[in-house]
Amino acid sequence: MTIKRFITNLLALFTLFTVSLACKDTEKSIINSSFSISEEYLIQNLDKSSTSVQIPINTSMELAQWSVSYEANWLQCSKQKTAAEGTFLRITVNENTGETKRTANIKVTSTTATYTITVNQYAKGEVIVEGDIKVTPTGGKASEHQEGQDIENTYDGKFSTDGAAPFHTPWGQSAKFPVTLEYYFKGDTEIDYLIYYTRSGNGNFGKVKVYTTTNPDRSDYTLQGEYDFKEQNAPSKVSFSEGIKATGIKFEVLSGLGDFVSCDEMEFYKTNTDKTLDKQLLTVFTDITCTEIKNNVTNEQIQALPDYFVRIAEAVRDNTYDKWEKEFRIRSYEPYSNIAEWADKLMTKKYSDLDNPTGISVKAGDDIIVLVGDTYGQNISMQCIWETGTEYKQTASSGDVYMLNPGVNKLTMKGEGQLFVMYNTELTSNTAKPIKIHIPLGSGTVNGFFDLKEHKTDEKYAELLKKSTHKYFCIRGEKIMFYFHRNKLLEYVPNNILSAIHLWDNIVGWQQELMGIDDVRPSQVNNHLFAISPEGSYMWASDYQIGFVYTYLGNILLEDNVMAAEDNAWGPAHEIGHVHQAAINWASSTESSNNLFSNFIIYKLGKYKSRGNGLGSVATARYANGQAWYNMGDATHQNEDTETHMRMNWQLWIYYHRCEYKTDFWQTLFKLMREVNMTEGEDPGKKQLEFAKMASKAANQNLTDFFEMWGFFEPVNTTIEQYGTYKYYVSDAMIREAKEYMAQFPAPKHAFQYIEDRKKSEFPPNDYRYSAVGDVGYYTQFKENQKITKAITAELAGRKVSIQNGDEAVAFELRENDENGKLITTAIYNHTKEPVLVKQNDMVVYMLRVYNEGEIDGYASKVSDDIPDGLEYLPDNSLNKEYRWVMYDKDGKETTDVKEATKLTTDYLSKEQGEARMKENSELKENPALLTAFDGSKEISETNPDYADVKIAFKVKDPNSNTYIITNHAQISDDSDKDGKPIEDIDSVPDEWNEGEDDQDVEHVKVEYFDLALLKYVTKAIVIENGQERITETGYNGLEDPEPVVKVEIKKKQLKNVIVKFAYGIKITNEGDIPGYAKEITDYVPAGLRFEAADNPGWTDEGNNVISTRLLEGKLLQPGESATVEVVLTWINGADNLGEKINTAEISEDYNDHGDVPDRDSTPDNQVPGEDDIDIAKVILAISTGIGQTFFGITIGLLSVVLVGIILIKKFVL
């Protein structure tokens, strides 16, 4: 065979093969046309309301290839198909206002199969429930009450949620326990039980005795029982062993929440033993929850039930109970612990008691049937949770409460919200068993919730969230619950909740780990923290709830976002720490003791370093300023220097836990402090010393030196303000007693009051920790028990100490006389003149102190100061006039022109000027400028060596420096002896700058600058063709600048049928030193793209292709922190609208709290390219060339040159 013939045959074979393939594709299209409806959807049982349901259709057919027919005029059907939900049939029914059930059949026909869907719509079917008989008091009296809030308010049938007043003991003072409430009755009706309803607030009953009498004159009360209502915010029920025809029932309340006593309503009941409905239901169902039909039940028996229950029985019998409905309507509810009891025992804020969501929402006026199984004698109730607030809305911590009894309960809803089962008890009780509850079809609307233990997967979460309809959606983890805006969950985490719930379960669990409560949790206490998403404020923690403003949820729900910025984990951990801090907290420590937990969370996450000032701030407070613990440092929040205070607890953790000297230290200390059992506001001075004593006991070491440095042992007698006013008292006797107690333990191995877990090299220069962290004292020196092998030497020159070979030490102490003398100061680094932080336009005052370290008296006749770039001398400033500063130009000539001045000189400390001041002030007996000789025979003190000061004031300008550090040089330029005659300095030459001389010095200031930068980039391309949506992630996160261009290629024949959207990320980063806000971001939509409001919640169309958002206006960006918003733009489809589209975004309004310092390198809303608050992102749309079938990067030589001559393209091909 010739080569030519072989090629011809090969081409023929290839053609044949191609045709064969094409034929088979056609056959496959016909053969594989599918159409089916799952059996579970073929019977639809609907209540009387107007509603809609979706029936999924499993098909490859187009809508036109199948049909729907029906005769009923009270329903409508429509065939629909979407990219997200596929093909489905929507059935909409009108409200059934008739008295009976109605039925319709819908025929669904295709070429391959025909189905009939039966729709049953039930009538209202009023359910008559024979409730227990309420017995109303005829009167009563209380031992004390607040005016207008007497006992009659507790039996008027009106609750505080209705706006009625409760009973309450006098405000502003503790109740006079025991408080008695006595109720009068006719005595003609037996009372079997009573229900005590709390108000939401102080006064909930704790321990209480209940007495009854049947005497007409209400004498001779008999004790029925002693109870503990545990001060919980939930109803309590007391049942008598047998019915009592009481003429009086008396309560002796022995304790109450907040030392008050209150009662919303007190209800008394006779049990109705003739409950016809319950008996009738039990002829059909196996138990009163109506979830299972008895064997051999006839249709006649079912039809004899009330209509409402006929529907239930038929759904159960025919197995047509909708799976979605059934999952949340029929549940077993687990018992949870009493939050008030365990908050008291564990010394925490109260966790939530909303541990049992039903996933069912209701509206005001709804009648809800609740079928309750065996309660094993436990008290259970239902609570409806909605919103509160006027300035902004947030989820309420409590709501209307409805007591539940075994059997059929009918509840009329006072307001809207979601229902929660309240089942709180002793978990160790034999009767603490799951309780089965059925909230039947027609009672409320199923919204669903996600339970980590039950539902497990992200796929199930996405399904549940998608089906939900209420404003809020509940997510229950192991230790925390999210009750967040549904639309925000759809925005931030539409299909991926596991990483978030695991992360926050861990964060709560890590805090609980430090508290040492594993012996009781979860065996005895198992409540959740309850996180809500208020529509205002920022972050907070309180009893029952923690709040994260709803615009911030993306930063705590997306694990990458949590890890992207230190504050995203720190802030929530700080607020949760407020829940757990009480045992180790006292007034003066409230905003720092909780940061033990925050630093621990940061450590566990493993990305960032601990927070807080360096030990230099402690040394300054203690040894320079003589401050104690309570007033240490400079108050930053609630009269507390939190950045300094927080390091104390963290040092204890570093040494005992990280260095592994006692890894259960904090767990032990928490337990000991719970035994001490002092509240946060109780005698802060005493609790401070108890903390030191118990810390020594937990460590089994004498920590006197540690707490001495932290200012615990200073006498105090003052009043402080921190979330209240407190008397702070520490006496010498109290200090002595504490030290004696601590002395029973051996001394620690190390002086770990100097321990540090950070290094300077770990931080950028604009991080405050860069300047705060020392050169020595790193925790590994303690852990590895590092020895000092070098000969350390120190030199004292005036007030300056120079240390050589000190890198193996952990700290340096300066003491009087000898090593046992009074501690004057400490240091953990060589003094490097770290810059003082200032802001542009600040006035900076320098103090120049001149010491006489010599042996003869003398004067600093002239002192000079060089004017550095970045500072502006102020000749009219009163301080500068007082100190007689004179300006000189670069040639050394005196000048009055500030712009020409480069140097300043003063003779303020000269002999002549001192004499002049003596003439002006007759009280001066000696020349104030004279510096007396140093007396080497005396100790160094504040007056030995002698010194004198001059001051100079400058205004801070914007320096011409990338570092923003301004260095000011000053020196003595002339000196003289006591007679004013020239004299030679022993170790320096005046008016010459020679390194190492001590007649000169420098000081640095660093200008804090405000700098918000914006980066814009494409995060994904969304392509929708014929209802099918495909999303391609670019992987960009703002780290590439410029990032490759995103290109979407569209096949020409598909051009008319395709929708293309681009999602852009806009990242705002604080590149400065000053925290600030990007209050408004503006986006300039390019021609060819359009803005669609439905894709962009939080964005506003300003017109003329300009859109804006204020989504970040409440987000304070700390230095180095970033936040991101997203905008989605849609391509305007058309063959004439291809090519490059350049989208621009800009910060249009910013703000900071530092006098609104302007951004250092850009101006908001000026649309000037090149500034760092504006950026572009490019996309390209093109007709597909057919080259390449996936998402990849290529280089295009014909496009504009960027950087090294290429521009990367990310390409999407349809």
Structural description of this entry:
This protein is α+β, with helices and mostly antiparallel strands and 1214 residues long. The protein is 20% helix and 32% strand. An 8-stranded mixed sheet has the order 60-61-58-63-64-56-66-65, with no helix packed on it. It is globular. Mean pLDDT is 87; it is low at 1-31 and 1187-1214.
Integer-rounded radius of gyration: 39 Å
What proportion of the residues form beta strands (DSSP E)? Answer: 25-35%
| Main sheet overview | 8 strands, mixed
Number of helices: 24
* N-to-C CA distance: 43 Å
Q: Estimate percent helicity.
A: 10-25%
**Model regions low in confidence, pLDDT < 50 over at least 5 residues:** 1-31, 1187-1214
What structural class do the secondary elements suggest?
alpha+beta
Q: Give the integer mean of the pLDDT values.
A: 87
Task: Identify the quaternary structure here.
Answer: single chain
Principal-axis shape equals globular
DSSP strand tally: 66
Strand order within the widest sheet? Answer: 60-61-58-63-64-56-66-65
